[in-house]
Amino acid sequence: MTTYEIVNYFVALLVVCNPIGALPAMLGLTEDETPEERRRTGLITTLTVGIILISVTLVGGPFLGILGIGLAPFRVAGGFVVFLLALSMLNAEKSRIKITSGETRDAIQKEQVGITPLAMPLIAGPGAISTVVIKTSSYHGPLNLIFMLGSALAVTFTMGLGLYFSGFLERLLGRVGINIFTRIGGLILASNAIESIGQGLITMFPGLAS
User: How far apart are CA 80 and CA 97, in angstroms?
Assistant: First the structure.
């Protein structure tokens, strides 16, 4: 992986996890908690997301082979999933791909909202998993694996800071500021999704490249 590809992967993974967009859900699900309890929930969410991203990075590519799924079809399918998520972000809406209203209602009754639905499926959901699997299946070798693990850890750390200071960030950015960041992230994500779909289609149908 080149430096550009590493940075591109980090940005794409950070955008699809969308820690800024997750702030309202985080604050809403923890509204009855004390500041200390909310920070603990943010820490649990961060650790869970980190475990998910690292696990998928290590086993995502081989898992496709076990299932007998080719990279090209997964690129197209994963690209569509990420694109639908990007459309929701462009409209500053909560995507049903990440979390449904039923899951939100159930979460209110759970003690450990940091694991579900915050970590999974809100942050490290289908979009993030698709992004990781596509990249790990595209770049092979121990050095590339180290780069992708490093990116996953960097995303987890960045997201953890955002969740730890969630109350401060919401006051600083406001609803309008959060929506602006979400829409910009949606545009970046849509571009990556279209590129993934295009590469998958060209691999499956080489005649499209001519």
Answer: 11
Helices (H), the chain: 3-17, 23-29, 35-67, 71-90, 101-108, 126-138, 142-164, 166-204
Longest dimension (CA), the chain: 60
Q: What is the pLDDT along the chain (210 residues), one digit of tens a residue?
A: 899 999 999 998 998 887 777 777 777 777 777 888 888 888 999 999 999 999 999 987 777 777 777 778 877 887 787 788 778 778 866 655 555 555 555 554 555 777 877 788 778 877 888 889 888 888 889 999 999 999 999 999 998 888 888 778 878 878 788 778 778 877 877 887 888 888 888 888 888 776
Alpha-carbon distance of 12 to 17, in angstroms, equals 9
Rounded alpha-carbon distances, angstroms, from residue 6 to 63, 90, 99: 22, 24, 28
